[in-house]
Amino acid sequence: MSCLVRPSEAATLAIHACALMAAADGRALTTSQMAGSIGASEAHLSKVLQRLSRSGVVAGRRGPGGGFRLTAKPALVSLLRVYEAVDGRLGGSGCIMAVPMCTGAACPLASLLGQVESTIAEGLSGVTLADFGPAVTRALAKRAERKPRDSHERGSGTNSRKKGR
Questions:
Q1: In angstroms, rounded to a whole number, what is the distance separating the alpha carbons of residues 74 and 71?
Q2: What is the pTM of this model?
Q3: How far apart, in whole angstroms, are the C-alpha atoms of residue 76 and residue 22?
Q4: Is the pLDDT of residue 33 over 70?
Q5: Alpha carbons 47 and 86: distance in angstroms, whole number
Q6: Could you please report the per-residue DSSP string of the chain?
Q7: Percent of the chain topping pLDDT 90
Q8: Structural domain boundaries of the chain?
């Protein structure tokens, strides 16, 4: 099934990384730690973290003991702030059709899309990173429990195929 409203990959990474930092209770997390937890490319996540840092959502420190932290308490950081730090101001997305046929002035979708974007912005502004705390903690605990089993199931780099197949 397709989804009409889908955030960019960068926005998704930003929200997940910020949720991890919120659950870290002020401890700095490295790009590598976050990328491993959310299954993302370190290079892509690094670019996303740079945008979050430039916008003041996170602060980074290099070197031993370095990493990224939120600059405000998780309860004060809305998902809208995180989203807009990475993808810019929400709204005015223009025509969603692959091949626009009109100028938009008389488009029957223009009003509907404006309402949808307003609803999304309102929803994102009402959810903070603190709201993710318990869910992220549970998800990370489950992931940690699965890791040893998953690595065992994949084998340890040896060929696990039976001979003759």
A1: 9
A2: 0.77
A3: 11
A4: yes
A5: 10
A6: ---S----HHHHHHHHHHHHHHHTTT--B-HHHHHHHHT--HHHHHHHHHHHHHTTSEEEE-STT-EEEESS-GGG-BHHHHHHHHH-SS------SSS--S-STT-HHHHHHHHHHHHHHHHHHT-BGGGGHHHHHHHHHHHHHHHHHHHHHH-SSS--PPTT-
A7: 48
A8: 9-89+107-134
Question: Quick one: average pLDDT of 73-89?
Answer: 95
Specify the CATH number of the domain 9-89+107-134: 1.10.10.10
56-80 pLDDT per residue, tens: 999 999 988 899 999 999 999 999 9
Residue 42: predicted pLDDT: 95
Q: Write the single-letter amino acid at 62.
A: R
Pairing of strands 67-70, 58-61: antiparallel
pLDDT at 157: 43
- Per mean pLDDT, which range of 7-16, 90-99, 107-116, 119-128 is the poorest? 90-99
* Token pair belonging to 98: 């692959």
90: tokens are 């929400």
Q: At what angle do helices 133-154 and 9-23 cross, to 10 degrees?
A: 100
